Amino acid sequence: MFPCLLGLLALHPLFAAPADRGPNAATAQHAPLPVLSQAAATQPVATQQIMLPSAPSIAAPQLTFFPHPDNTRIWISGQEDTIYQMHFNFHSPYQGANSFTAPFQYKASEVATLMLGYQLRATPRYETDLLYDEENAGGRGLSQAFGLAGFTNLDVVRNPNLGLTPYVARAEWHQTFGLTDEMVPQQRGPLALATQVPVRRLDLRIGKMTLPDMFDVNAVLSDSHLQFMDWSIDNTGAWDYAADTRGYTYATVLEYQDRVWAVRYALALMPTVANGITLDWALRRARGQNAEFEFRKGLLPGHEGRIRLLAYGNNAHMGLYRDAVQAYQAGTTPTPEITSVEKFGALKYGFGVNVEQSITKDFELGGRFGWNEGQHESFAYTEVDQTFVIGGRYLGNSWHRPADNVAVAFNTNAIKKDHQNYLKLGGLGFLLGDGRLNYAREDIVEAYYNVHAWKGLYYALGDTWIAHPGYNQDRGPVDVQSVRMHIDF
C-alpha cells in the first residue's frame, strides 16, 4: 500500500526536476509540536507554560530551517504541510450524496502559512504582542471530506469551492497583565513572543484566531502536522467549537494563569449557516461561549501530566433533528431537511475531559472524552455527539533519533437517537448522509511514524482504519494510507 503513496509523493514539486513554481507556490507554516486549527498548526498557547521540556539524552537537533532568536522583538516563521491519502475499494452496497465513496481514490492537500509577530511592548509584566498569519489551503480531501465523522485529514478545508486565494488566518492583539513580579520561563513561539512571564497573570487575546490555539490542547493528540491527522483525534469531536469552514473565528479570550492551574473563557462568533464561511456579528442572537479549567499535575506520582475540563454553549440559527423528522413525516418536506426548521436562539451545549500523562521520559499517553446534547444540528466542526479517544506517543531517543516519534490512537464516535433517525430517513448533515443508516458507532484506529529528515523537514507514514464509516455498519471497513511532508522554516 505504502509504495503506491511513495510514488505519488515523487510527483510533489520538491521532488521533481527544477522548475518555476510560480507566484502561488506554497512557502510554509508551523513550529515543532502541537496544533492550531483545521487547516494550520503551531505550538498551542496552552502548551507554552511554565516549564520547558527536559533536555534529551543526546544533543538536540535543529528543528527549523532558520533560527528564531529570543533577543528580538520580531517573529517571522512559516510552515508548509502536504498530505497524500488513498484507499482501495471497500464494501458498500449503497451510498448517498454525502457518503465516503467506496471505489479506489487518492487525494492531496496542502496548507502553507506565514506567521508574523511584533512585541509592541517588551516589558515582561505587561507584554503586548501583535500577531498576524497569512495562509492558503489547497487540494482536496478523499470524497471531498464527506462521509466520515472522524475525517482522516484535518488540513482539508471542507468547502472545495473556496479556492487557493490566500486569506488572513490570525490577526490578534495579545496583552499580558502581570499580577506578580515573580517570573518563569516561557518557550517563545508564533503565538506568544515573551521568553519570561509572570507566574500569576491575566492574558487577553482579541481578534481573529482559532479556538484550539488555547482550548482542548493535548501534547499527544493535537498536532495534525507532526502527530495524528484525524479530525476527532486531534480535537474533541463533540466540541462543536465556533468557527467558519476554515476553522477560524473572531473572538475575545481571557485567561488566568497560576503556578499549577489555569482558567480561560472565550466569546466567539458563530457561522451564519452550518459549515459556512460567513460569520454572524450579531452576538445577541448568535455566539459561542467556551470555558476551560486546566490543572497541571500528573495522575502518577513523580510524572508530569495535565487535566483539562471544557464546557461550551453555542447559540445560532440551528434546527432540531426531531423537528426535521416530524416535518418529513407530516409531508412538509420530501426528505428530512434540517435547514427547514432552523430558528434563532437555539442552544447547543456540551463538555469535554482532556488528559495527558507522562509514563517515562520518552512515552506519553493522551485521552479525551466529549459529549454534547445531540438534539440540535451539528453546526461548526463535525457530526459527533459523543466521543472517546486514547493514544500514546513514543519519542525516538532510544534509537538515537530524538525528533522522531511513533504513535497509535483509538477513537470511537457516536450520535444520539434523534440524529440517527434523521440520517436513517435520508436526511443530510453538512458532512454525513448515506441515504439510509444501519447505525453503529464509528470506530477509528490511526498509527503513524514521523521522521525528522533534516533541519525543518519532516516525513510521516500513516494508516487509519475506520469501522462503520459515517456510523453505518452496512458500509466498510475502510483503510486509508497517508504520506505527509512537513516543512518548518
How does this model look, in words?
This protein has one domain: Porin (Beta Barrel). With 489 residues, the protein is mainly beta. It is built from four helices and 20 strands. The strands form three sheets. Strands 1-2-3-4-7-8-9-12-13-14-15-16-17-18-19-20 form a 16-stranded antiparallel β-barrel. Mean pLDDT is 89; it is low at 1-57. It starts with a helix and ends with a strand. Helix 3 (321-329) runs parallel beside helix 4 (417-424).
SS summary, helix count: 4
Overall morphology? globular
By CATH, the topology is Porin
Radius of gyration from CA coordinates: 22 Å
Q: Beta-strand percentage?
A: 35-45%
Widest sheet, order of strands: 1-2-3-4-7-8-9-12-13-14-15-16-17-18-19-20
CATH architecture verdict:
Beta Barrel
**Fraction of residues in H or I helices:** under 10%
Task: Encode the helix/strand succession as letters.
Answer: HEEEEEEEHEEEEEEHEEEEHEEE
SS class: mainly beta
Note the gap between the termini.
31 Å
Number of domains: 1
Assign the CATH superfamily.
Answer: Porin
User: For this structure, what is the CATH class?
Assistant: Mainly Beta
Mean model confidence by pLDDT: 89
What's the total count of β strands? 20
Question: How does the major sheet shape up?
Answer: 16 strands, antiparallel, barrel
